[in-house]
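Quick log. Single chain, no ligands specified.
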Amino acid sequence: MTAMRTLVCELGITNRASMLILNKIARVFPKPSRRKIYEYLRSFHLNPGRVSLHKVVLGIETSCDDTAAAVVDETGNVLGEAIHSQTEVHLKTGGIIPPVAQQLHRENIQRIVQEALSASQVPPSELSAVATTTMPGLALSLGVGLAFSLQLVGQLKKPFIPIHHMEAHALTIRLTNEVDFPFLVLLISGGHCLLALVRGVSDFLLLGQSLDIAPGDMLDKVARRLSLVRHPECAAMSGGRAIEHLAKRGNRLRFDLTPPMHRAKNCDFSFTGLQHAIDRIVTKKEKEEGLEPGQVLSSAPDIAAAAQHATACHLAKRTHRALLFCQQRGLLPPSNAALVVSGGVASNFYIRKALEIVTDATQCALLCPPPRLCTDNGVMIAWNGIERLRAGVGILYDTGGVRYEPRCPLGVDISKEVAEAAIKVPRLKMEI
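-> predicted structure:
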């Protein structure tokens, strides 16, 4: 308490209300040293006479294997952000182990939030709200972020904004570009793959989604099957990044991989069959080269190139149909229509080029957030909070019934209507 009183005096905070706020903030974090509390609060340069002139949101993201936080204001300025990646740990275990991810979130969430707030120089008392991913994702990971956030908003007496992870990915483009509603979004990541028409904040029409696994998950499994973690160029890369890197010097024509569901006239996706086909190719080549499973094939770059191309073609064709459906039904503006591609797999430039061929053919604009905002991050969560504050949607002042949801649909599903339209997609040359 002596250190607290000294800090209050040095910062010129003399009224009782400010003292109570400081005490509450200090109690949010479990058993910090007096020195840490002192340095943490001193870094904000609190001024009791200063009033925040616009909305500022703290976003917290723990849906999978990254612990992230950011402070964003309503003009789109990223005031502070921090992230702790678990990639290196999970590469060693061959995939994400939920209890391991949960423990790493617990160990790092306090530090990450502190770093984001300190970098922003925004006192916690001046936050407009706290926004946190509560759906969908790994249950154990979501639970850490939610528990921490509820404690935080309880101490600060701030509104809480639960965030749908996919909605956040979809709206990130409005942070970096001037994009009006409606627009079509393709969300592709390690855990999700879907096409949706975005008509407004929390207003989505679902046109199609993966019937099994997501493209990021599939590419990660292919990378593991190819043992790319043992490849000297790819050892520190995630599976998807390793595939993209190795494919640059591969010959995709060496292996014939037919894109999935090429006869189905809908906008759904499937990647399990493609994964199994690649597994068979790898097994065959291991026998031909006399290698044991776990050794890197000489043909790995060619297999990576073929897998990436088949994935890109599948995504492109389903997206092409979605654009044609929206144009025929008048769901997109006749001019300046936009396709937004977001999520971790949107960082793959080969896939972006395939989608650019589609948007050129349909006279649409292709928009992608910067690669660092395509993967999971706190900025997109904070920005989604800003969007919801503006729209007055989903802002909670009573958090008594808040729960995390590992599985949660996005918007209204009209995929059957899309399938019934049975739109034939013109053949495009995928010369990438």
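The longest strand covers residues 66-73.
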